[in-house]
Design a protein that fits this description.
171 residues; alpha/beta; Rossmann fold
Length: 171
């Protein structure tokens, strides 16, 4: 496994798993949010974003976390050797988002000039997106994954115990 795509809900642990996998397998880690967002949560031109992703995954080995279905699936999935779905329960995802937003600590998977906070205008819509992810977003991601990469192995991880067991299996 030299090219791994990690998918899942906001707050599911994609970034943390990507870092741990990168360390364990000595692979570069690509956080799509870092490539996408510009200062002040400004969205880039789609061509610019795709060019950043294309450059980030040009190598023979990487761990790439994030969804961005219509924007980058066609770049990442055909090259992947493994897809990992973070199947974290939505209540846990929402709890993590609230905690990390309340703490507002800098994160390696957050673009420069973008800060999380409980009182931003997009916070409640983001929580609603997270709550509804399994019903609205995930099915579209899964259909696209099956269409673009039907033969690539898929691993489902639900909690810390499964994640630790998966990482231990790589030794």
């Amino acid at each position: 496994m030299r090219r791994i795509v990690i998918l899942g809900n906001a707050g599911s642990g994609k970034s943390t798993l990507a870092r741990r996998l990168g360390e364990r397998l000595r692979l570069p880690v690509v956080h799509l949010d870092v490539l996408f967002w510009e200062p002040g949560w400004t969205e880039p031109d789609n061509d610019a974003f795709r060019a950043r992703v294309r450059a980030a995954i040009a190598g023979d080995a990487w761990v790439c976390e994030g969804n961005y279905l219509s924007r980058t699936f066609d770049l990442r999935l055909p090259r992947a050797e493994l897809v990992i779905w973070m199947d974290t329960p939505r209540l846990a995802c929402v709890r993590r988002i609230i905690v990390r937003s309340a703490l507002a600590k800098p994160r390696a998977d957050l673009a420069a000039g973008c800060e999380e906070g409980l009182f931003g205008t997009d916070f409640l819509p983001f929580l609603a997106y997270t709550w509804n992810y399994d019903r609205k977003s995930r099915p579209r991601l899964e259909v696209a994954r099956q269409a673009m990469a039907p033969d690539i192995p898929v691993v489902h991880l639900r909690d810390r115990r499964q994640i630790d067991a998966f990482l231990d299996s790589l030794s």
